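Recall that a protein's primary structure is simply its ordered list of amino acids. Everything else, from secondary elements to tertiary packing, is in principle encoded there. The following example makes that idea concrete.
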Amino acid sequence: MTQRTVLVVLFDGVQSLDVTGPLEVFAGAEKTVPGSYRVLTAALGGGPVRSSSGLTLVPDLPLAEAPAPDVLLVPGGAGTRRPDPPLTDWLRVHGPRAGRLVSVCTGAVRLAEAGLLDGRRATTHWAFCDRLARDHPAVRVDPDPIYVRDGHVATSAGVTAGIDLALALVEEDLGRDTALTVARHLVVFLRRPGNQAQFSAQLAAQTARREPLRDVQQWITEHPDADLGVESLAARVSLSPRHFARAFRAETGTTPGRYVDRVRLEHARRLLEDTGDGVEQVSRASGYGTPEAMRRAFVKALGTSPAEYRRRFRPTTAR
């Protein structure tokens, strides 16, 4: 087995979870399959750096002494909001030499500053996607997915999305069983597909203040195939349909119908990505009733049919 070197770049103002999340994944894979990864951290000058939360991180070596890595990982953090010409210059020279170039959160800003994302599709934390697109028009910024792969370059959204991307890389290198072992140890999902939206229905909508409405939100999520009309949902909280619709929108920022639509779409996407269930079965389980109704919803929201969506986005297990 060829050992892969993972080099994590450190700098003042780095987001500590952007570093430790992926690092724990690769270190866990090394413990599961000894000899699979060598994980190193490095910083310009080689001295300690202070993370955005105040945590001090001590790198293994200076960047000038770092070996050419198989995976070069650039985390994000508040430090990316100010220019760092020496680090940008180092990335411009050494980034193309890495087998795979990876960023977490606003680490994509550093890659873009070095010209390493020009002409590529990329993502970053949702709050910085507009800035990335504005400052670097040569980058095709996609604000929706939690991570994006474009050739040997992979960019991910904020914080925990780096764990998802690292697990995907481990699965690609060492297979599903190893990635699953690491995920179980970290108590995380093995895979949130990269095309999964940064905003789920629960995140995009506010959480209702009143407990009965919060319970309804959760019930919708757990029962997408139920009768989720306003009348039925209102009855669950003993309100009139008009009062319920008004209260739901006031407390969540969206209408009951739009919330239900998003929950059903997410549920259908997960089934298409993660199971071999037929389109008809998925449509029933997701509350659409018929494949045609689900097709219309997919075309309207995603611009593609369920069958094409599955073909494009269902992950394959590494061999």
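The chain has two domains: 4-186, 201-319. Residues 201-319 form a domain with the Arc Repressor Mutant, subunit A fold (CATH 1.10.10.60).
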